[in-house]
Specification:
The complex is a heterodimer of chains A (278) and B (129).
Chain A lengths: L2 H22 L4 H11 L4 H25 L5 H22 L4 H20 L13 H5 L4 E5 L2 E5 L4 H18 L4 H11 L4 H25 L5 H21 L5 H25 L3
Antiparallel strand pairs in A: 1-2
Chain B lengths: L7 H34 L19 H9 L3 H29 L3 H24 L1
Classes of the chains: A mainly alpha (278), B mainly alpha (129).
């Protein structure tokens, strides 16, 4: 394959991944790496490098919309970014020492979880009675706009959320994905932050987390210009179109259908990892 | 908090403009680099099946910048990647200034730690080679 043949194929795949990723909330990263490795035969390490870069682009590009809606919480985000960036550095270190077969298997498992989570409705929170004193001291409690006026919320289990965020950061750095679904679990289910605030803040954090590990991957030679160019431009264009269409499409059915496809890709990823053909 | 001109909302607004601008500039640079890259390498075969790792010129910070100034396509693309990496880092730096203007020293410290980790991986990683 020549460069002139490779780039348009990758661009088209990235465009689709970015488009569907932003519609379903799964993000482009979890889809583009399997496409590159399983269908285009790209080594997993090149795929990870290119995908991490595209994750930064989509996260940063989408942040503006969330800020306009006043959903994201900069204090919660910044505090938890200590955990995610440290995790990302550890994950990136681990990623360069683990064989690609193992990476493929871990990737498949994470992908299965993300697909399963995306296919369901967000679980209703079972409220703990009291706010975490640490959350008060860190001024995390805030409010967000709803149709019926400002809705106040308080944050719980800060330490547990912080710990899970370290894991989310490590997985992001290890596999080169945003690991947005794990970040949302940490905030929505563990820290009991409202779902809209959790997703907006998670998106805000993804770019910073990915920047921590992408810098390391760049200096280790994982980021190839010939791959990153079509991937980044494709995912960016696709997610911009997806974000524009989002309010007008019936998403739940699309999410379920897409989750099935992602689940199948995940199994394929695990199988190739076990057989060692990656 | 409300008396301060630098409310959390104001910080986030500045930050979101910065993020969008950064991404657009980085995307434009990568696109231009792609044109230069194709002008020279379009008909060359590519093989990404086996991992070789990039040569120093495409992974060490100052060599990327130097290469981009000679209008080498691959270097311009990598420069766009570096600009993209710098965008969230700039975001954290702006937040640090915002919290300092609020005199919220707890969050100045928190933000400084995040900034430290990011700079460590960008500069530290590049220096190690």
């Amino acid at each position: 394959m020549t460069a002139a043949e490779f780039a348009p194929i990758v661009f088209a795949a990235a465009l689709l991944a970015g488009f569907v990723g932003s519609l379903t909330g799964l993000g482009g990263g979890v889809i583009i790496t399997p496409v590159l490795t399983l269908f285009l035969g790209v080594d997993m390490r090149y795929a990870i490098g290119a995908t991490l870069v595209s994750v930064i682009a989509t996260s940063s590009g989408a942040a503006a919309a969330y800020v306009r809606d006043r959903y994201s919480n900069i204090r919660i985000g910044m505090f938890l970014e200590i955990a995610t960036t440290l995790g990302a550095v550890c994950g990136a270190w681990l990623g360069t020492h683990v064989p690609t077969r193992a990476l493929a298997i871990v990737f498949g498992v994470v992908l299965l979880q993300a697909a399963w989570q995306a296919s369901r409705e967000p679980k209703p929170q079972t409220k703990l009675p009291v706010s975490d004193p640490l959350a008060c001291r860190l001024k995390m409690n805030s409010s967000y706009p709803t149709a019926t006026g400002e809705c106040h919320y308080s944050v719980r289990r800060v330490k547990a959320g912080f710990g899970l965020m370290f894991v989310a950061g490590a997985i992001s750095g290890l596999l080169g994905i945003g690991s947005g679904s794990l970040k949302v679990i940490a905030m929505d289910q563990v820290m009991q932050i409202p779902f809209k605030v959790s997703t907006a803040t998670s998106n805000f954090m993804i770019g910073v987390t990915a920047a921590a590990s992408a810098s390391l991957y760049l200096s280790r030679g994982y980021v190839d210009p010939g791959i990153v160019m079509p991937v980044m431009l494709g995912v960016l264009a696709g997610s911009m179109v997806g974000a524009k269409l989002l309010p007008r499409l019936g998403v739940p059915l699309l999410r379920k259908g897409f989750a099935v496809i992602v689940g199948l890709i995940a199994i394929q990823m695990i199988v190739t990892g076990i057989r060692g053909t990656i | 908090m409300k008396s301060s001109k630098w409310t959390d909302e104001r910080i986030e607004q500045v930050v979101s403009i910065l993020l969008r601008t950064g991404v657009l500039i980085a995307g434009a640079v990568v696109f231009v680099g792609g044109i230069y890259y194709f002008a020279r390498h379009a008909s060359e075969p590519v093989n990404y099946r086996t991992f070789h790792g990039e040569p120093e010129v495409d992974r060490i910070l100052h060599r990327i910048v130097a290469g981009a100034f000679t209008l080498r396509g691959r270097s311009i693309i990598q420069l766009g990647v570096v600009l993209l990496l710098a965008t969230p880092i700039a975001r954290v730096a702006v937040s640090l200034v915002g919290f300092a203007l609020q005199r919220d020293w707890t969050y100045v410290l928190i933000t400084a730690i995040v900034l430290g980790v990011l700079l460590y991986s960008l500069v530290g990683g590049a220096l190690q080679g």
